[in-house]
UniProtKB/TrEMBL annotation:
Lineage of the organism: Eukaryota, Viridiplantae, Streptophyta, Embryophyta, Tracheophyta
Protein's UniProt name: Nucleoside phosphorylase domain-containing protein
Domain Nucleoside phosphorylase: 27-255
A Pfam family annotated for this UniProt entry: PNP_UDP_1
An MF annotation (GO) of this entry: methylthioadenosine nucleosidase activity
Length: 266
């Protein structure tokens, strides 16, 4: 199954590369699940909340925007759930926001930035920041030929060899699911995905971006060690502030590198 999934991912990426080889980068859209994760970058880049939102009035989505160097920077967060007042995390809000952002903002590049759990067995540590090499789902188990590959949905991320080399960034595979904890079934799927980090949005963002052939980079900061000896939720809350600060530093370097370049330069 993995080999066929890799073949599908490679074909999709080759198709995308044919579309974007020499395209200049001007408009970047960041998809960030929690505003807390985005706040340091919003403040650093002096982005302003858009009062005339391009999104439907019924949704709580928030757009922060501004110019940084020669780049039109947009950060989109799904906002708060209308019933419970908590951040609208997980794959459904991420998919909707990504779709709407592509339609409204026409980005040259999408960056999905945020926190993730890491696996010490794969070398991950708290506050590590990873560029994702490929993403897949671990909780869409469909034991039917071909549909099993669709469920996993493995996709290679847009290649950024020059960026990775210049900034000396860690690289790892991402596995995405709608639960913060890890069931035995999820663990088996995550192992099959050969994941170094796991989150609740990344593969969904990659799925939608792939439909519209928008190059996408996924950047994840490790808040908790999934295969460690502490509760995930406890570690996540304890390390959230430190990891978002580290993400801010790393993402700023990424933006500085991107400025003035074409997609093929990455």
């Amino acid at each position: 199954m993995a080999a066929n999934g890799e073949d599908f991912s490679n074909a999709s990426m080759e198709n995308l590369m044919g579309h974007v080889e020499k395209r200049s980068i001007f408009t970047i859209v960041f998809i960030v699940a929690m505003q807390k994760e985005a706040q340091p970058l919003i403040e650093r880049l002096r982005l302003v909340k858009e009062v005339n939102s391009p999104f439907p009035k019924e949704v709580a989505w928030i757009l922060f925007k501004g110019m940084y160097k020669d780049l039109n920077i947009n950060i989109v967060c799904p906002g708060k759930d209308s019933a419970l007042g908590v951040d609208s995390v997980c794959t459904v809000p991420a998919s909707l926001v990504t779709y709407a952002s592509i339609q409204a903002l026409q980005p040259d590049l999408i960056i999905n930035a945020g926190t993730a759990g890491g696996f010490k067995a794969k070398g991950a540590r708290i506050c590590d920041v990873y560029i994702v090499s490929s993403s897949a789902f671990h909780d869409r188990r469909i034991p039917v030929p071909v549909l099993d590959l669709y469920g996993v949905g493995m996709r290679k991320a847009f290649p950024t060899p020059n960026l990775i080399k210049e900034l000396n960034l860690k690289v790892g595979r991402l596995s995405t699911g709608d639960s913060m904890d890890m069931s035995p079934h999820d663990k088996e799927s995550i192992t099959a995905n050969d994941a170094t980090v796991k989150d609740m949005e990344g593969a969904a963002v990659a799925y939608v971006a792939d439909i519209f052939k928008v190059p996408t980079i996924l950047i994840k900061g490790v808040t908790d060690i999934v295969d460690g000896n502490r509760p995930t939720s406890e570690e996540f809350l304890e390390n959230l502030a430190a990891v978002t600060a580290q993400l801010d530093e790393s993402i700023t370097k990424v933006i500085d590198f991107i400025s003035g370049k074409c997609l093929s330069d990455l």
